[in-house]
Specification:
- Strands 3-6-1-2-4-5 form a 6-stranded antiparallel sheet.
- By secondary structure, the chain is mainly β.
- The chain has one domain.
- The chain starts with 5 loop residues before the first strand and ends with a strand.
- The chain contains 1 helix and 6 strands.
Length: about 80
């Protein structure tokens, strides 16, 4: 998984965003993911670089953003 991949929200504590699909964007200096599962949690990503913490998914209808201060959980997978 890398920036600009098309991803889908597969799990979220905000159910209205389940299934949201778009391009993956990040300000993280280093972007890592579990290559075997092609899925990662917000907590895992935000532990990599605490200074660059904004991750987002953007499509033509809107965007979904989160940071280390977000109070919800989200998992995404490449589609």
């Amino acid at each position: 998984m890398k920036p600009l991949d098309t991803v889908k929200i597969t799990k979220s504590s905000k159910p209205e965003y389940l299934g949201f699909v778009g391009k993956l964007y990040t300000n993280l200096k280093c972007f890592h993911a579990n290559a075997n599962a092609n899925i990662f949690s917000m907590v895992e990503i935000l532990q990599i670089d605490k200074n660059e913490t904004c991750v987002g998914i953007i499509n033509e209808k809107g965007a979904f953003w989160w940071t280390k201060n977000s109070d919800f959980d989200v998992e995404i997978a490449v589609v």
